[in-house]
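Ticket #4471: structure output looks truncated?

Reporter: J.K.
Steps to reproduce: submitted the chain below (487 residues) through the standard prediction queue, then opened the result file.
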Amino acid sequence: MTMSVTGEGRPGKVSEAGRSVRPEPLPPGLWKMAVVLALGPILALLDTTIVNVGIDSVGRDLHSSMASVQWVATGYLLAISLTMPLSGWAAGRFGARRAWLASVVLFVLGSALCGLAWSTGSLIAFRVLQGIGGGMIQPLGQSIMVQAAGPSRIGRVMGTLLLPISLAPVLGPILGGLVLEHLDWRWMFLLNVPVGLLTVLLAARWLPAEDRSELPRARLDVTGLVLLSPGLTALVYGLSTIGGGGTAGPVAVAAGAVLLAAYGWHALRIGRRRDGRAPLLDLRLFARRGFAVATANSFLQGAVLYSSMFLVPLYYQQVEHAGAVAAGLLLAPQALGTAVTSLLAGRITHRFAPRPLILLGIGCSLLGTVVFTQLGRGSGPADWLVVGSLALRGVGMGIIVIPGMAAVYGSVERAQVPAAAGAVNVLNRLGGALGTAVLTVVLQQAQVGHPGQPGAAFGATFWWVLALSALSIAPALLYPGAARKAG
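Returned output as attached by the reporter:
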């Protein structure tokens, strides 16, 4: 029995005649790992969307201005940006399982303290603690799952992990609305505690222990930490505030760019040394074609996904005067399309080269976006057409993400998986921050250019979303276009 490689380094079983055969079923232990490792990011994503719905209630109860209370959301985002680059080092130093468990425990502790907060300042501080825990949950979980599954099963495993995670942005506003309608806002945080504790108990039982003797005992790259984490934090903060006017946003972006450039020089310099030191985020991974292409695509897809999740609910709230829960529900077709298609894509990724699948996904995403460019024209598109377009966008994203993730992890060695997970998640979040910031500025300018026509302003902004989607075709064309067989 020989092995074939789909794209770059993704082996799948083939028969002696070279034809694909049905892959082996996933063992029960791997399914249990997938379930427990999906619970962590679901907690973090649900918390983010629930809190966004409840910011106004928090401000009223704590007698805080919107300028102050918005840091409840911003502080969490910045804490995630600060800690996410540490995931690769933490996995190497303490073991991915221990680091993941510690991250979930810290997230749960932060949630409990948020529910007990007595002022806006204390709530912001506890949200930062929560974000420090939440920042490493997803990259560490991905690295554990990829290393346990092996290259030939990455697609199916990632499809399974993405299925519930895709639904979190839809469930968050619904749960947030129910909590605010029937309970105190503090329960937005306290609900995380029992679910988080259950996650920790299941993880302690279902995640296999690691052989500590095999860990590289990597030294912390302190210089890299001083440059990279503040650089990312400043860049994300600047991008998230640049549309609000003033100089704080542009200054933060400039400072972040300088720090990241300094980190790049530092990482490449120590990466050439042989004294056992490793950069916090290894830029040498980008010398691998499969990794560089896949992370570039992930960056652009992050920009498209997060910006559209910002624009669509905002349109229905500002133009159609829908409530927060109703606006969140309008994202359901897109989330369902992503969830179902990612599960199917996970089952067929090992059979096809990534380029045709990803180009198909981008095509679906483009077609699903065209309708939104017509907002504000006449009576606007029919509701059924909007729903269908959102579902088609979700289908496209579901097709894109699985072969992209398989290409990322299939292009690196097993020992490099934690570093690769940290890098791809950092770039995906940066893409989301950049896309949202750019489209916020574009929307503001469009509103000035279309006075009294809010729908037309959104329609003009979605042309930029269409352009971002089209831009992702460039890296997609660099993926391998045909399966290659070893031997």
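Triage note (M.O.): checked the attachment and the full token line is present. The domain at 3-12+23-209+280-480 is CATH 1.20.1250.20 (Growth Hormone; Chain: A;).
Status: closed, working as intended.
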